[in-house]
Write a structure and sequence with these properties.
Bound molecules: flavin-adenine dinucleotide
Largest sheet: 7 strands, parallel
Number of helices: 10
Distance between the termini: 53 Å
Strand order of the largest sheet: 8-12-7-2-5-6-13
Number of strands: 18
Protein backbone atom coordinates (compact mmCIF):
# COMPACT_ATOMS: atom_id res chain seq x y z
CA UNK A 1 0.00 0.00 0.00
CA UNK A 2 1.28 3.41 -0.78
CA UNK A 3 0.09 6.65 0.73
CA UNK A 4 0.45 9.14 -2.10
CA UNK A 5 0.36 12.76 -1.10
CA UNK A 6 -1.46 15.38 -3.07
CA UNK A 7 0.00 18.60 -4.36
CA UNK A 8 -1.03 20.42 -1.21
CA UNK A 9 0.99 18.12 1.03
CA UNK A 10 4.06 18.42 -1.16
CA UNK A 11 3.85 22.19 -0.92
CA UNK A 12 3.38 22.03 2.84
CA UNK A 13 6.32 19.71 3.22
CA UNK A 14 8.56 22.01 1.21
CA UNK A 15 12.01 20.71 0.41
CA UNK A 16 12.07 17.20 1.89
CA UNK A 17 15.88 17.17 2.01
CA UNK A 18 15.80 19.72 4.84
CA UNK A 19 14.41 17.05 7.17
CA UNK A 20 17.15 15.06 8.89
CA UNK A 21 17.49 12.68 11.78
CA UNK A 22 15.49 10.00 13.55
CA UNK A 23 13.55 10.93 16.69
CA UNK A 24 12.13 8.67 19.36
CA UNK A 25 9.57 10.00 21.83
CA UNK A 26 10.80 8.99 25.29
CA UNK A 27 7.62 8.19 27.14
CA UNK A 28 8.06 8.41 30.88
CA UNK A 29 5.70 8.00 33.78
CA UNK A 30 6.65 9.20 37.23
CA UNK A 31 10.30 9.33 36.28
CA UNK A 32 10.41 5.85 34.71
CA UNK A 33 11.02 5.43 31.00
CA UNK A 34 8.55 3.05 29.37
CA UNK A 35 10.41 -0.01 28.02
CA UNK A 36 8.92 0.50 24.54
CA UNK A 37 10.81 3.80 24.20
CA UNK A 38 14.09 2.00 24.85
CA UNK A 39 13.13 -0.70 22.35
CA UNK A 40 12.47 2.05 19.81
CA UNK A 41 15.88 3.59 20.48
CA UNK A 42 17.33 0.23 19.37
CA UNK A 43 15.22 0.22 16.20
CA UNK A 44 15.83 3.94 15.64
CA UNK A 45 19.59 3.42 15.93
CA UNK A 46 19.49 0.95 13.03
CA UNK A 47 17.43 3.31 10.86
CA UNK A 48 19.69 6.26 11.70
CA UNK A 49 22.79 4.25 10.86
CA UNK A 50 21.38 3.24 7.48
CA UNK A 51 20.50 6.84 6.71
CA UNK A 52 23.77 8.19 8.11
CA UNK A 53 21.97 10.60 10.44
CA UNK A 54 21.66 11.31 14.15
CA UNK A 55 19.34 9.49 16.54
CA UNK A 56 17.65 11.72 19.11
CA UNK A 57 15.34 11.08 22.06
CA UNK A 58 12.64 13.63 22.86
CA UNK A 59 12.12 13.83 26.59
CA UNK A 60 9.21 15.87 27.93
CA UNK A 61 8.21 16.09 31.58
CA UNK A 62 9.07 17.69 34.88
CA UNK A 63 12.34 16.96 36.67
CA UNK A 64 13.23 14.28 34.16
CA UNK A 65 16.70 15.52 33.16
CA UNK A 66 18.28 12.54 34.96
CA UNK A 67 16.69 10.17 32.43
CA UNK A 68 18.81 11.51 29.57
CA UNK A 69 21.75 9.26 30.47
CA UNK A 70 19.69 6.13 29.96
CA UNK A 71 18.62 7.47 26.55
CA UNK A 72 22.25 7.92 25.47
CA UNK A 73 23.14 4.50 26.82
CA UNK A 74 20.44 3.01 24.61
CA UNK A 75 21.95 4.56 21.49
CA UNK A 76 20.77 8.18 21.16
CA UNK A 77 23.28 10.82 20.03
CA UNK A 78 21.18 13.64 21.36
CA UNK A 79 18.35 14.36 23.76
CA UNK A 80 15.86 17.19 23.26
CA UNK A 81 14.65 18.01 26.74
CA UNK A 82 11.72 20.19 27.71
CA UNK A 83 11.25 20.35 31.45
CA UNK A 84 8.25 22.23 32.74
CA UNK A 85 5.80 21.71 35.65
CA UNK A 86 2.92 21.73 33.15
CA UNK A 87 4.45 18.64 31.50
CA UNK A 88 4.51 16.59 34.70
CA UNK A 89 1.52 14.53 33.60
CA UNK A 90 0.73 13.65 30.01
CA UNK A 91 -1.89 15.86 28.43
CA UNK A 92 -2.49 15.85 24.68
CA UNK A 93 -2.68 19.61 24.56
CA UNK A 94 0.66 20.41 26.17
CA UNK A 95 2.71 17.49 24.86
CA UNK A 96 1.43 17.94 21.31
CA UNK A 97 2.22 21.68 21.28
CA UNK A 98 5.72 21.26 22.67
CA UNK A 99 6.51 18.31 20.40
CA UNK A 100 5.19 20.07 17.30
CA UNK A 101 7.23 23.22 18.07
CA UNK A 102 10.38 21.10 18.41
CA UNK A 103 9.66 19.25 15.17
CA UNK A 104 9.04 22.51 13.30
CA UNK A 105 12.30 23.94 14.58
CA UNK A 106 14.58 20.90 14.06
CA UNK A 107 12.81 19.12 11.17
CA UNK A 108 13.32 15.41 11.91
CA UNK A 109 13.02 13.00 9.00
CA UNK A 110 11.44 10.21 11.04
CA UNK A 111 9.50 10.22 14.34
CA UNK A 112 8.84 6.98 16.26
CA UNK A 113 6.55 6.53 19.26
CA UNK A 114 5.40 3.53 21.28
CA UNK A 115 1.89 2.32 20.45
CA UNK A 116 0.85 2.81 24.08
CA UNK A 117 -2.22 4.75 25.12
CA UNK A 118 -0.09 7.88 25.40
CA UNK A 119 1.96 7.27 22.24
CA UNK A 120 -1.11 6.53 20.14
CA UNK A 121 -2.79 9.69 21.34
CA UNK A 122 0.25 11.93 20.93
CA UNK A 123 1.32 10.54 17.54
CA UNK A 124 -2.12 11.17 16.04
CA UNK A 125 -2.26 14.70 17.39
CA UNK A 126 1.29 15.55 16.27
CA UNK A 127 0.78 14.07 12.79
CA UNK A 128 -2.44 16.03 12.36
CA UNK A 129 -0.83 19.27 13.44
CA UNK A 130 2.21 18.71 11.20
CA UNK A 131 -0.10 17.57 8.39
CA UNK A 132 1.98 14.49 7.78
CA UNK A 133 1.37 10.74 7.48
CA UNK A 134 1.36 8.29 10.39
CA UNK A 135 1.51 4.50 10.22
CA UNK A 136 0.10 3.12 13.44
CA UNK A 137 0.82 -0.17 15.22
CA UNK A 138 3.78 -1.23 13.10
CA UNK A 139 5.40 -4.61 13.45
CA UNK A 140 8.43 -3.86 11.28
CA UNK A 141 10.50 -0.82 10.26
CA UNK A 142 13.09 -0.50 7.52
CA UNK A 143 14.52 2.06 5.14
CA UNK A 144 14.45 2.41 1.36
CA UNK A 145 17.81 4.11 1.13
CA UNK A 146 17.49 5.27 -2.44
CA UNK A 147 14.36 7.30 -1.74
CA UNK A 148 15.06 7.83 1.98
CA UNK A 149 11.66 6.37 2.77
CA UNK A 150 10.59 4.78 6.02
CA UNK A 151 9.10 1.35 5.22
CA UNK A 152 6.55 0.81 7.96
CA UNK A 153 4.98 -2.64 8.01
CA UNK A 154 1.76 -3.48 9.82
CA UNK A 155 -1.13 -5.95 9.54
CA UNK A 156 -3.95 -4.66 7.32
CA UNK A 157 -7.38 -5.80 6.13
CA UNK A 158 -8.17 -7.56 9.39
CA UNK A 159 -4.68 -8.98 9.60
CA UNK A 160 -5.02 -10.85 6.31
CA UNK A 161 -2.03 -9.12 4.74
CA UNK A 162 1.09 -7.40 5.98
CA UNK A 163 1.17 -3.96 4.34
CA UNK A 164 4.30 -1.87 3.96
CA UNK A 165 3.25 1.76 4.04
CA UNK A 166 5.33 4.68 2.87
CA UNK A 167 4.77 8.39 3.08
CA UNK A 168 6.24 9.66 -0.18
CA UNK A 169 5.69 13.37 -0.06
CA UNK A 170 5.34 14.09 3.64
CA UNK A 171 7.93 14.77 6.28
CA UNK A 172 8.43 13.85 9.02
CA UNK A 173 7.54 10.20 8.43
CA UNK A 174 5.80 8.95 11.55
CA UNK A 175 5.14 5.50 12.99
CA UNK A 176 3.97 3.97 16.24
CA UNK A 177 5.24 0.53 17.23
CA UNK A 178 3.78 -1.81 19.80
CA UNK A 179 5.69 -2.74 22.94
CA UNK A 180 7.79 -5.90 22.64
CA UNK A 181 7.86 -5.92 18.84
CA UNK A 182 11.43 -4.56 18.75
CA UNK A 183 14.24 -6.02 20.80
CA UNK A 184 15.66 -4.10 23.74
CA UNK A 185 19.04 -2.63 22.69
CA UNK A 186 22.21 -3.60 24.53
CA UNK A 187 23.15 -0.85 27.01
CA UNK A 188 26.41 1.02 26.52
CA UNK A 189 27.10 2.14 30.12
CA UNK A 190 28.55 5.63 30.40
CA UNK A 191 27.81 6.50 26.74
CA UNK A 192 27.25 10.25 26.43
CA UNK A 193 25.41 12.48 23.99
CA UNK A 194 24.41 16.09 23.43
CA UNK A 195 21.66 17.69 25.50
CA UNK A 196 19.48 20.32 23.86
CA UNK A 197 17.33 21.86 26.55
CA UNK A 198 14.45 24.08 25.46
CA UNK A 199 12.48 26.47 27.62
CA UNK A 200 8.76 26.79 27.02
CA UNK A 201 6.20 29.04 28.56
CA UNK A 202 3.17 26.98 29.59
CA UNK A 203 0.78 28.53 32.06
CA UNK A 204 -1.76 26.29 33.78
CA UNK A 205 -4.42 29.01 33.56
CA UNK A 206 -4.11 29.07 29.74
CA UNK A 207 -4.60 25.31 29.38
CA UNK A 208 -7.94 23.70 28.62
CA UNK A 209 -7.34 20.56 30.66
CA UNK A 210 -6.27 20.15 34.27
CA UNK A 211 -5.11 17.00 36.06
CA UNK A 212 -7.13 16.80 39.28
CA UNK A 213 -6.21 13.34 40.48
CA UNK A 214 -4.36 10.23 39.34
CA UNK A 215 -6.28 7.05 40.19
CA UNK A 216 -4.40 3.75 40.06
CA UNK A 217 -6.17 0.99 38.16
CA UNK A 218 -7.81 -1.47 40.50
CA UNK A 219 -7.89 -5.22 40.11
CA UNK A 220 -5.40 -7.78 38.96
CA UNK A 221 -2.60 -6.49 36.76
CA UNK A 222 -1.95 -8.83 33.86
CA UNK A 223 1.49 -7.99 32.66
CA UNK A 224 1.78 -10.46 29.82
CA UNK A 225 4.30 -8.31 27.99
CA UNK A 226 6.91 -8.90 30.67
CA UNK A 227 6.19 -12.63 31.16
CA UNK A 228 8.96 -15.12 30.41
CA UNK A 229 6.66 -18.12 30.07
CA UNK A 230 3.14 -17.88 28.66
CA UNK A 231 0.70 -20.76 28.43
CA UNK A 232 -1.99 -19.67 25.98
CA UNK A 233 -5.16 -21.55 25.19
CA UNK A 234 -7.63 -21.41 22.34
CA UNK A 235 -10.96 -22.81 21.23
CA UNK A 236 -9.45 -26.28 21.23
CA UNK A 237 -9.73 -26.32 25.03
CA UNK A 238 -13.45 -26.90 24.60
CA UNK A 239 -15.00 -24.93 27.45
CA UNK A 240 -14.21 -22.73 30.43
CA UNK A 241 -13.37 -25.71 32.66
CA UNK A 242 -11.03 -27.19 30.08
CA UNK A 243 -9.33 -23.82 29.68
CA UNK A 244 -8.93 -23.34 33.43
CA UNK A 245 -7.65 -26.84 34.04
CA UNK A 246 -5.20 -27.07 31.16
CA UNK A 247 -3.87 -23.51 30.90
CA UNK A 248 -3.80 -22.48 34.54
CA UNK A 249 -2.58 -25.95 35.53
CA UNK A 250 0.49 -25.85 33.28
CA UNK A 251 1.14 -22.13 33.88
CA UNK A 252 1.15 -22.69 37.64
CA UNK A 253 3.44 -25.70 37.39
CA UNK A 254 5.91 -23.73 35.23
CA UNK A 255 5.64 -20.42 37.09
CA UNK A 256 4.28 -18.83 33.90
CA UNK A 257 1.29 -16.69 32.98
CA UNK A 258 -1.85 -17.50 31.09
CA UNK A 259 -2.73 -16.02 27.69
CA UNK A 260 -5.58 -16.66 25.29
CA UNK A 261 -6.68 -16.48 21.69
CA UNK A 262 -9.56 -14.24 20.75
CA UNK A 263 -11.82 -17.26 20.35
CA UNK A 264 -11.26 -18.18 24.00
CA UNK A 265 -11.90 -14.59 25.09
CA UNK A 266 -15.04 -14.29 22.98
CA UNK A 267 -16.33 -17.58 24.40
CA UNK A 268 -16.18 -15.87 27.81
CA UNK A 269 -13.61 -18.27 29.28
CA UNK A 270 -11.21 -15.49 30.22
CA UNK A 271 -11.03 -11.69 30.27
CA UNK A 272 -9.92 -9.68 27.22
CA UNK A 273 -6.79 -8.43 29.01
CA UNK A 274 -5.34 -11.94 28.52
CA UNK A 275 -5.84 -11.85 24.75
CA UNK A 276 -2.71 -12.15 22.65
CA UNK A 277 -2.58 -10.89 19.07
CA UNK A 278 -3.50 -8.05 16.82
CA UNK A 279 -6.34 -6.77 18.99
CA UNK A 280 -4.77 -8.02 22.20
CA UNK A 281 -1.20 -7.67 23.45
CA UNK A 282 2.07 -8.39 21.69
CA UNK A 283 4.29 -10.65 23.75
CA UNK A 284 7.92 -11.74 23.68
CA UNK A 285 8.38 -14.51 26.26
CA UNK A 286 11.19 -17.04 26.31
CA UNK A 287 8.61 -19.83 25.89
CA UNK A 288 5.10 -19.54 24.44
CA UNK A 289 2.75 -22.52 24.61
CA UNK A 290 -0.06 -22.42 22.03
CA UNK A 291 -2.57 -25.02 23.20
CA UNK A 292 -5.53 -25.71 20.93
CA UNK A 293 -4.79 -22.54 18.98
CA UNK A 294 -4.97 -22.80 15.19
CA UNK A 295 -2.47 -20.01 14.44
CA UNK A 296 -4.54 -17.38 12.62
CA UNK A 297 -2.43 -14.47 11.35
CA UNK A 298 -4.06 -12.12 13.87
CA UNK A 299 -2.79 -14.35 16.67
CA UNK A 300 0.63 -14.93 15.13
CA UNK A 301 1.46 -11.21 14.82
CA UNK A 302 1.31 -11.02 18.60
CA UNK A 303 3.73 -13.88 19.31
CA UNK A 304 6.51 -13.51 16.75
CA UNK A 305 8.85 -12.07 19.39
CA UNK A 306 8.78 -15.33 21.40
CA UNK A 307 12.10 -17.19 21.55
CA UNK A 308 10.46 -20.63 21.52
CA UNK A 309 6.89 -21.50 20.51
CA UNK A 310 5.54 -24.91 21.51
CA UNK A 311 2.26 -25.84 19.83
CA UNK A 312 -0.11 -28.68 20.62
CA UNK A 313 -2.93 -29.25 18.18
CA UNK A 314 -4.93 -32.24 16.92
CA UNK A 315 -4.85 -30.95 13.34
CA UNK A 316 -1.49 -31.63 11.66
CA UNK A 317 -2.31 -28.96 9.07
CA UNK A 318 -2.96 -26.19 11.60
CA UNK A 319 -1.06 -23.04 10.52
CA UNK A 320 0.56 -22.79 13.97
CA UNK A 321 2.81 -25.71 13.00
CA UNK A 322 4.44 -23.54 10.32
CA UNK A 323 5.42 -20.97 12.94
CA UNK A 324 6.29 -23.00 16.00
CA UNK A 325 9.69 -24.19 17.21
CA UNK A 326 8.30 -27.50 18.49
CA UNK A 327 4.98 -28.96 17.45
CA UNK A 328 3.06 -31.87 18.95
CA UNK A 329 0.14 -33.29 16.99
CA UNK A 330 -2.26 -34.55 19.60
CA UNK A 331 -4.99 -33.89 22.11
CA UNK A 332 -4.17 -31.23 24.72
CA UNK A 333 -6.20 -33.13 27.31
CA UNK A 334 -3.91 -36.13 26.93
CA UNK A 335 -0.56 -34.42 26.33
CA UNK A 336 -0.59 -31.46 28.70
CA UNK A 337 -1.19 -33.50 31.90
CA UNK A 338 1.87 -35.58 30.97
CA UNK A 339 3.84 -32.37 31.37
CA UNK A 340 1.93 -30.79 34.27
CA UNK A 341 1.77 -33.75 36.64
CA UNK A 342 5.54 -34.50 36.87
CA UNK A 343 6.25 -30.76 37.17
CA UNK A 344 3.87 -30.51 40.14
CA UNK A 345 5.88 -33.19 41.93
CA UNK A 346 9.18 -31.32 41.59
P1 LIG B 1 -9.65 -21.88 16.16
O1 LIG B 1 -9.14 -21.18 14.96
O2 LIG B 1 -11.05 -22.38 16.12
O3 LIG B 1 -8.65 -23.07 16.48
C1 LIG B 1 -8.84 -24.03 17.44
C2 LIG B 1 -7.77 -25.09 17.24
O4 LIG B 1 -7.84 -26.04 18.28
C3 LIG B 1 -7.89 -25.85 15.91
O5 LIG B 1 -6.68 -25.72 15.19
C4 LIG B 1 -8.15 -27.30 16.34
O6 LIG B 1 -7.52 -28.22 15.50
C5 LIG B 1 -7.53 -27.32 17.72
N1 LIG B 1 -8.09 -28.32 18.62
C6 LIG B 1 -9.39 -28.67 18.80
N2 LIG B 1 -9.49 -29.59 19.78
C7 LIG B 1 -8.23 -29.81 20.25
C8 LIG B 1 -7.69 -30.66 21.26
N3 LIG B 1 -8.47 -31.42 22.03
N4 LIG B 1 -6.34 -30.66 21.44
C9 LIG B 1 -5.53 -29.90 20.67
N5 LIG B 1 -5.99 -29.08 19.70
C10 LIG B 1 -7.34 -29.03 19.50
N6 LIG B 1 -7.31 -13.74 17.32
C11 LIG B 1 -6.44 -13.74 18.34
O7 LIG B 1 -6.10 -14.79 18.88
N7 LIG B 1 -5.94 -12.55 18.80
C12 LIG B 1 -6.25 -11.35 18.25
O8 LIG B 1 -5.79 -10.32 18.73
C13 LIG B 1 -7.17 -11.35 17.15
N8 LIG B 1 -7.51 -10.19 16.55
C14 LIG B 1 -8.31 -10.23 15.45
C15 LIG B 1 -8.60 -9.06 14.76
C16 LIG B 1 -9.39 -9.09 13.64
C17 LIG B 1 -9.66 -7.79 12.92
C18 LIG B 1 -9.95 -10.30 13.20
C19 LIG B 1 -10.82 -10.34 11.97
C20 LIG B 1 -9.70 -11.47 13.86
C21 LIG B 1 -8.88 -11.45 15.01
N9 LIG B 1 -8.61 -12.63 15.71
C22 LIG B 1 -7.69 -12.60 16.72
C23 LIG B 1 -9.32 -13.88 15.44
C24 LIG B 1 -8.54 -14.87 14.59
O9 LIG B 1 -8.76 -14.64 13.22
C25 LIG B 1 -8.96 -16.31 14.92
O10 LIG B 1 -10.35 -16.42 14.70
C26 LIG B 1 -8.65 -16.76 16.34
O11 LIG B 1 -7.31 -16.51 16.64
C27 LIG B 1 -8.94 -18.24 16.45
O12 LIG B 1 -8.71 -18.66 17.77
P2 LIG B 1 -8.33 -20.18 18.07
O13 LIG B 1 -7.05 -20.51 17.38
O14 LIG B 1 -8.40 -20.35 19.54
O15 LIG B 1 -9.57 -20.96 17.45
Amino acid sequence: LTTLAGAEAAVLSGDLGRYQGVWVFIEQREGQIMPVSLELLGAGRQLAQKLGVELAGVLLGHQVCGLANKVYECGADKVYLVDNPALRYYRTETYMQVFVDLAKEYLPEIILMGATTTGRDLAGAVATELRTGLTADCTGLDIDLQQRLLLATRPAFGGNIMATIVSKAHRPQMATVRPKVMRMPALAPGRQGALVQKEVSLKEEDLLTRVLEIVQEQGEQVNLQEAEIIVAGGRGLGDRDGFQKICFGLAEALGGRVGASRAAVEAGWIDHKYQVGQTGVTVAPKIYFALGISGAIQHLVGIRGADVIIAINTDPNAPIFKECTYGLVGDVFKLVPLLTEPLKEL
